[in-house]
Design goal:
Layout: E1 4-9, E2 17-22, E3 33-34, H1 40-53, H2 65-68, H3 78-85, H4 92-110, H5 120-132, H6 137-156, H7 181-187, H8 197-212, H9 216-220, E4 227-228, E5 233-236, E6 239-241, E7 246-248, E8 257-260, H10 263-273, H11 300-313, H12 318-324, H13 330-341, H14 346-353, H15 358-363, H16 373-378, H17 391-397
Antiparallel strand pairs: 1-2, 2-3, 4-5, 5-8, 6-7
Helix pairs in contact: 4-6, 5-6, 8-10, 8-11, 8-13, 10-17
Length: 400
């Protein structure tokens, strides 16, 4: 097999072990490397797998997709490394998501298919079959993107002659729903069951998201050192990755920004700080995890469940919530629509939401959902009914 040579070495005890040398671009061979195999056949397979791991094509071998794409989307693999070297935007979560797409959708269909046999017709059939099974255009297109990425790499390595034409599915993603102003007033007037620390964290997090449009990961990543309550703002510079369970030192777009917060939110944060276990530790999370408050923020389910429970309190059932497609991320759409309807310049909205482009800001626009926006914006929580309780009262009401 071109690309490597193998030979056996005797041992004092046991069968001989095969060693391999791999051909370098200049025609010379590398130093010998043990395969750990005692048969020539196993050693050859080990060498083939080793070369595939390194992204080296095997001349004369008609690879299946599964053979070629093994660990293709690994964070430390050649593809992701090249992206980082080229300065392209990529994250470990992106790699994990693509690997899951491969495992769940692509390999069951194309895993045992030779790369040279994957053509326009088979890809179109794959796309159409997913549509018939009820998958959204967004999921289908993610699968097509992952498959195309692998085939492009195979083309670059001259394993296939060309990438087949791939036609995307219609992006029929269900539009995210938002609450009306009247519903928001009722929501923050109802009881959020603020008797425990977790419940109060959920309440405060939703209050902050409703008034700023923060992404959930950005909200979780807020640290004590990011708070500037006397100035009425918070610095957003990091994001918590719930998939990888780690803190990213930048936001999703890589931009740092300051967000201003209303008095009601400031009061809620100050009350939360009175029960914070490490309020004077700059690196501790504002929305702290109760088990490891300086290492991990509160779990995302705390904020999500708090919102859904409060929605049920104002008679929005789980069935209605699902039908309207209202999630925690809906707060981002809510705030964006509020500002656009208030005729706030798009550039200023981008500085608040952290969008990269005006087009992305328009993606969140819900023109028919708001009335009397200027007055509502100034008094977003004015109809919430309940007066802010003092810090001591809230601290006394929260039970561990």
């Amino acid at each position: 097999m071109a690309g490597f040579s193998i030979y056996s070495r005797k041992r004092k005890n046991g069968k001989p072990v095969y060693y391999a040398q791999f051909k370098k671009p200049d025609g010379n061979y590398t130093t010998a490397k043990s395969t750990g195999c005692t048969t020539k056949r196993d050693a050859s397979q080990w060498c083939e797998h080793y070369l595939l791991k390194k992204g080296v094509p095997l001349p004369g071998k008609d690879l299946t997709l599964s053979e070629f794409a093994d660990n293709f989307f690994s964070w430390n693999g050649p593809w992701a490394t090249s992206k980082r070297v080229e300065g392209k935007r990529i994250s470990e979560r992106h790699c994990i998501d693509r690997a899951d797409i491969m495992r769940l959708y692509i390999l069951p269909v194309f895993g045992n298919v030779k790369l040279s046999d994957i053509d326009k017709i088979s890809i179109k059939q794959f796309r159409n079959d997913m549509y018939v099974k009820g998958y959204s255009g967004s999921v289908i297109n993610k699968c097509l993107y992952a498959l195309k990425t692998i085939l492009e790499d195979a083309e670059d390595r001259e394993i296939i002659k060309a990438v087949p034409k791939i036609t995307r599915a219609a992006d029929n993603t269900k539009q995210k729903g938002i609450l009306s102003i009247e519903e928001v007033h009722r929501l923050f007037s109802c009881s959020w069951f603020q008797e425990t620390i977790s419940q109060y964290i959920g309440y405060t997090g939703n209050l902050l998201a409703a008034s700023t449009g923060l992404r959930l990961g950005e909200l979780q990543a807020i640290q004590i050192q990011d708070l500037h309550l006397e100035g009425g703002y918070i610095t957003i510079k990091r994001s918590w990755d719930n998939r990888c369970n780690k803190l990213n030192e930048t936001t999703k777009t890589g931009r740092e920004r300051n967000i201003f917060i209303p008095e009601k939110v400031i009061c809620a944060i100050q009350a939360l700080l009175t029960v914070h276990p490490f309020p004077n530790t700059p690196e501790s999370f504002l929305f702290f995890g109760e088990r490891k408050p300086t290492e991990k923020p509160a779990e995302k389910v705390i904020f999500i469940r708090s919102l859904y429970r409060a929605m049920r309190e104002i008679d929005i059932s789980e069935e209605e919530r699902r039908a309207r497609n209202i999630t925690f991320h809906s707060w981002r759409h809510f705030l964006n629509s509020l500002l656009i309807n208030a005729k706030i310049p798009l550039q200023k909205i981008q500085s608040i939401t952290g969008h990269l482009t005006a087009e992305m800001t328009q993606h969140y626009y819900h023109i028919d959902d708001m009335q009397d926006v200027r007055q509502i914006q100034e008094n977003l929580f004015s109809a919430s009914g309940n007066k802010e309780r003092g810090h001591a009262a809230i601290r006394d009401s929260i039970r561990n």
